[in-house]
Predict the structure.
Amino acid sequence: MRIVRPLFATLGLAVLFCTAPAGAAPTPAPPDPAITALPGKMVAALVANDAATLRANCAASATVVDEFAPYVWSGADACAKWAAAFKAFAAQMKITNPKGTVKPNPLVDISGNRAYMTAQLRFDATMAGKPVPEEGTWTFVLVKSGGAWKVTNLAWGTLHR
């Protein structure tokens, strides 16, 4: 009997510590791939000055914040205006061969037809013949409209130069 009691006590503790509590939150579902694909689509469209893709992925009225003047674009066609401004900025600064690489696993939070996402990016380009890397974070606010996720707000934040 002396061996049985400690054995039952040990088994009871093992069950207690190895099982999830009754009210434990379930493992969240992976984010919608349509959301996590947006940073890649947006960076490709930006460097290609692809206004059609930007219009397809942005809400009719959006706001974009970036590190070059005039720093904010809002209202109708804001995403396409931002890309045109980037093209002019790149020409002025002698930036060539821009490309962006999106790091995997962006942070995504979804509440109904709204979503928030941050994605880490690395931009590489050549400026006046010298390689220029830049790392930062894109923050997106999205709305699901007509079955598709659309960018309503987009902000770039440089991590360092």
